[in-house]
Structure formats: C-alpha cells, structure tokens
Design goal:
Number of helices: 3
Strand content: under 5%
Radius of gyration: 14 Å
Helix content: over 70%
Distance between the termini: 16 Å
Order of helices and strands: HHH
Shape: elongated
Length: 73
C-alpha cells in the first residue's frame, strides 16, 4: 500500500504546470493510481477488521515519514 500511495503522490505532482491534453492524460494516470490505493486500503481494512480511514491515515503517514528521511529511497 505504501508503494501504491507513493506512486499516486508522484503522479499527482506531475500535474504541476500541465495544460490541455497533457493535463487530462496525467489526471487520468493520477486517478487510476489513487483508485488502486483506495482499493488496497479497502481490501486490507476488510481483511483485518480495521477502519478504512485509520488504514489510509497510517499509509499516508508512513509515506510522509519515509520521504522525510534522506536515507530512505
């Protein structure tokens, strides 16, 4: 899930400065990546009996923390 979330964030960041068809195509890539994250979160929450919101927050926090650590890549 962390890898999926990181990919979705990377796709979102690529939207900056795009316009027209390039923007639309990148927006689709971001949405697809985001949908994959949400599907994985929902599946994990259902399998573990966890709250989807709590799982999502944990994933987002893990991605933020790993991006702040220069040793992680």
């Amino acid at each position: 899930m962390i890898k999926l979330e990181r990919t979705a964030e990377e796709e979102r960041a690529k939207l900056a400065g795009l316009t027209g068809g390039e923007y639309d195509a990148q927006l689709r890539r971001w949405r697809e990546a985001s949908e994959a994250v949400q599907a994985a979160i929902a599946a994990h929450a259902a399998a573990t009996g966890s709250s989807p919101h709590e799982v999502e927050q944990a994933v987002k926090k893990a991605v933020r923390c790993s991006q702040e650590d220069p040793a992680v890549e």
